[in-house]
Amino acid sequence: MDIRTSQVETRGFRISIEENGRELGHCFIYLIKNDLHDRPYALLEDVYVNESNRGQGIGKLLVKKAIDLARELNCYKIIATSRFGRGELHQWYQKLGFKLYGYEFRIDFE
C-alpha cells in the first residue's frame, strides 16, 4: 500500500471595505477543489470588523460580497464556521442565508 500526496489548486481572495484610506473590515474566501465535485467550494474565514465600526452593516456587506464572489467563481457551496456559544453570531449568519449543517472537527497545532 502506497500513500501519495499531491498538490491541488486552492485559491484565496481577501475582501475588504475601506473608507478614507482606513480599513473598516475584511474577510477571506478560499476556493477548495476535490475529486467529488467538478466545481470548487468556498470557505469563508476571518470575518472581521473594527470594533468602532460594528453595527453599521459592514460585516453584512463583506459576507454578501463573499457569497456573490463564490457564485461568480462557480462554487457549489460556501461554508462559514463559528465556535459554540456564539448564538447571536449564528443567528446573524442564518439571516444572511447560511444553514446550520453539522459540526467542525479540528486539531490545533500550537
From TrEMBL:
Keywords: Transferase
Gene Ontology MF term list: glucosamine 6-phosphate N-acetyltransferase activity
Domain N-acetyltransferase: 1-110
Pfam families according to UniProt: Acetyltransf_1
PROSITE patterns the UniProt entry points to: GNAT
Designated name of the protein: GCN5 family acetyltransferase
Organism: Infirmifilum uzonense
Lineage, highest ranks first: Archaea, Thermoproteota, Thermoprotei, Thermofilales, Thermofilaceae
